[in-house]
């Protein structure tokens, strides 16, 4: 390549002066350092490496001590480095959310307009919004009133506040799904900065749980209900789920075969429902998912070019040093 | 050499034309590169994207 470029541009590109290369290369050399400097920098490096290894070991030991059933890894169609979300699945997941989960969980960081161009056309999203009655106001008399939803409205919450939600759910709080899921994915996701304060409050409940979970966890949790093993006593209103920390969860099994009907005719088995809602939640947590992966392809292209360029420049700069000849002439 | 010297004399020699050439190249590069990446991405993810499930316009 160097020869071809050299031919095209004349010898000018290829020439590099010996003096500048020598100066450049000497700044990478440790030969001229004093002894104490070498010892100082060496021990600093060892210390930093040791601290990193210690932190890593501590993190591993925390993982080893937790007694939950870990959710199995599933081959999601979006898990490849270039793979987009399955938008047909997002649309079905929205249907599951609306008809099942929305009875208890709110999702107040997603607005109907967000669905446009992702899973619904503008008309469809408008129709979805108009189905809901939204509390608005106050009007000129100071009263709140109900009106059909608009594209700009956020998904309505089933309960007016956290206390009402707890009261209706045996003291447990049905988390705001987008918030929860976002936590599940990574502690703070830029697309929902609004909710960061909220997340930290929730994270204090079961931090491990949240930080180590993903769409695999959602899927496992929703399909993992079973009878409690002998010796486990559940309180009134609790159910057994091995994937939930402690096993006793206040959310009843929500997904059963054919509990809803999909508008696209997909057979609504419990695992299909769980897969679709997990994909939908993945989207709500990372609406930028597809763009990010496209950007990854772009950066491979650009950086690939830059790496080739850098390699060429390195070869050129070092050519004077590499072709140097050192001769030893013993004194006669 | 003819091509490279005409290129040098007409574009690279003057800062004004050189800067203009940079802008023009950036414009065309960006357009084609984006188009290429979009096509590739749509090809890799054929069947999963919104454009694949969008109801057709005639309806």
Can you walk through the features of this model?
The complex is a heterodimer of chains A (332) and B (59). By secondary structure, chain A is mostly helical. Chain A contains 12 helices and 4 strands, in the order αααααββαααααββαα. In chain A, the strands form 2 sheets. In chain A, strands 1-2 form a two-stranded antiparallel ribbon. A two-stranded antiparallel ribbon of chain A has the order 3-4. In chain A, a hairpin with an 8-residue loop joins strand 1 and strand 2. In chain A, helix 10 packs antiparallel against helix 11 (270-285). By secondary structure, chain B is mainly alpha-helical. Chain B has one domain: Cytochrome b-c1 complex subunit 9 (Single alpha-helices involved in coiled-coils or other helix-helix interfaces, Up-down Bundle), CATH 1.20.5. Chain B has helices spanning 2-12, 15-44, 50-53. The longest helix of chain B is centred in the middle third of the chain and has 30 residues, at 15-44. The radius of gyration of chain B is 20 Å and the shape is elongated. The chains are: A mainly alpha (332), B mainly alpha (59). Chains A and B meet through helix 4 and helix 12 of A and helix 2 and helix 3 of B.
Q: Give the fraction of residues assigned to helices of chain B.
A: over 70%
Number of helices of chain A: 12
Shape of chain B: elongated
CATH architecture designation of chain B: Up-down Bundle
At the first level of CATH, the class of chain B is: Mainly Alpha
The overall average pLDDT of chain A, rounded, is 81
N- to C-terminal separation of chain A? Answer: 46 Å
Largest interface, and how many residues on either side? A-B, 23 and 17 residues
Taking pLDDT < 50 over at least 5 consecutive residues as the criterion, the unreliable ranges of chain B are none
């Amino acid at each position: 390549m160097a020869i071809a470029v050299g031919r095209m541009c004349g010898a000018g590109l290829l020439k590099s002066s010996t003096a500048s290369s020598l100066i450049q290369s000497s700044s990478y050399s440790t030969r001229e350092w004093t002894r104490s400097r070498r010892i100082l920098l060496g021990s600093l490096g060892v210390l930093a490496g040791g601290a990193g290894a210690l932190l890593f070991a501590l993190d591993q030991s925390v993982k080893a001590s937790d007694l939950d059933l870990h959710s199995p890894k599933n081959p999601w169609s979006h898990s490849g480095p270039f793979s987009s979300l399955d938008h047909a699945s997002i649309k079905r997941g929205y249907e599951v959310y609306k008809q099942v989960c929305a009875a208890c969980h709110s999702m107040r960081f997603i607005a109907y307009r967000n669905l446009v161009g992702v899973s619904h056309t503008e008309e469809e999203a408008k129709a979805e919004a108009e189905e809901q009655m939204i509390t608005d106001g106050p009007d000129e008399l100071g009263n709140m009133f109900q009106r059909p939803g608009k594209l700009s409205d956020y998904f309505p919450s089933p309960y007016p506040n956290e206390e009402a939600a707890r009261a209706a759910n045996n003291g447990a709080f049905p988390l705001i799904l987008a918030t929860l899921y976002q936590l599940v994915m990574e502690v703070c996701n830029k697309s929902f900065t609004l909710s960061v304060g909220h997340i930290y409050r929730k994270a204090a409940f079961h931090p491990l749980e949240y930080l180590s979970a993903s769409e695999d966890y959602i899927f496992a949790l929703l399909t993992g209900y079973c009878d409690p093993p002998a010796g486990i006593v559940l309180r009134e209103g609790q159910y057994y789920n091995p994937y939930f920390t402690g096993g006793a969860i206040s959310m009843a099994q929500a997904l059963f075969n054919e509990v809803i009907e999909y508008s696209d005719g997909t057979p609504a088995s419990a695992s299909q429902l769980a897969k679709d809602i997990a994909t939908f939640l993945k989207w709500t947590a990372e609406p930028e998912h597809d763009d990010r992966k496209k950007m990854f392809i772009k950066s491979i292209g650009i950086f690939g070019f830059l790496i080739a360029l850098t390699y060429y420049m390195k070869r050129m700069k070092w050519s004077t040093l590499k072709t140097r000849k050192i001769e030893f002439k013993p004194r006669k | 050499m003819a091509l490279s010297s005409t290129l040098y004399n007409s574009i690279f020699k003057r800062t004004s034309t050189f800067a203009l050439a940079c802008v023009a190249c950036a414009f065309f590069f960006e357009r084609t590169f984006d188009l290429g990446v979009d096509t590739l991405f749509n090809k890799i993810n054929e069947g999963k994207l919104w454009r694949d499930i969008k109801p057709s316009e005639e309806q």
